[in-house]
Amino acid sequence: MREGFVMTKKVVDFWACQDEVTKAYQDKRVLLLGQGKSGKPNVMTIGWGSWGIIWKRPVFTVLVRPSRYTYPMLEETGEFSVNVLPPGKEEIAKFCGSNSGRSVDKFAAQGLTPISGRVISIPIVQECIINVECRIIYKSDLLPQALNGPIRAEIYGESQDLHRIFIGEIVSCLRG
């Protein structure tokens, strides 16, 4: 356990949270937290992601566009946390998904509290009911030519700002 971690959350098996995280995606209540070497954390809303087993490890896969403020943070530290807001807090996720950390401190604006993670060096969100701590073990850019044509047209149109896939090994899952 990391020094500075406050045990306000219960360690749980990540499979025990799978249905709740899936529901939270549907309700638009999932936040990705990154923190660069500057030490300033940022949260962004994510509408996609998956988890499972790859290379005999529990993993959480997220996709982030290079244009996003959080993108270089993932590159710098190699860690991220996935944080699930409680039901009824969708407005927080809406705010975090429509405002950039370049221009606003989303934590201050939405009354969110970054706290020390249990294992990783970057924070988790205190107010969230599930926190998944991940270390990046693989990353790769989407290849336009390999992407299904209708999906490419629907999601990206003419944009060249395709996502990078980050696969993070789940090193801790917390509830509270």
Please characterize this protein's 3D structure.
The model has no long low-confidence stretch (mean pLDDT 93). Strands 1, 2, 3, 4, 5, 6, 9 and 10 form an eight-stranded antiparallel β-sheet that branches. Strands 7-8 form a two-stranded antiparallel ribbon. The two termini are 17 Å apart. 22% of the residues lie in helices and 35% in strands. It has one domain (10-175): Roll (Pnp Oxidase, Chain A). It is globular and about 45 Å long. It has helices at 18-27, 71-77, 90-98, 106-110, 149-155; strands at residues 10-11, 30-35, 41-45, 50-54, 57-64, 79-84, 114-116, 123-125, 130-141, 164-175. The protein is an alpha+beta fold. It is built from five helices and ten strands.
Task: State the low-pLDDT regions, or none.
Answer: none
The quaternary structure here is single chain
- Estimate the strand proportion: 35-45%
Give the C-alpha Rg: 16 Å
Main sheet summary = 8 strands, antiparallel
Please provide the ordered H/E string of secondary-structure elements: EHEEEEHEHHEEEHE
Structural class: alpha+beta
Give the count of structural domains: 1
The mean pLDDT is: 93
Estimate percent helicity. 10-25%
Number of strand elements: 10
**Any guess at the CATH architecture?**
Roll
Q: Just give the CATH class.
A: Mainly Beta
| Silhouette | globular
What's the name of the CATH homologous superfamily? Electron Transport, Fmn-binding Protein, Chain A
Fold-level CATH name: Pnp Oxidase, Chain A
Question: Count of helical segments?
Answer: 5
- Distance between the ends: 17 Å
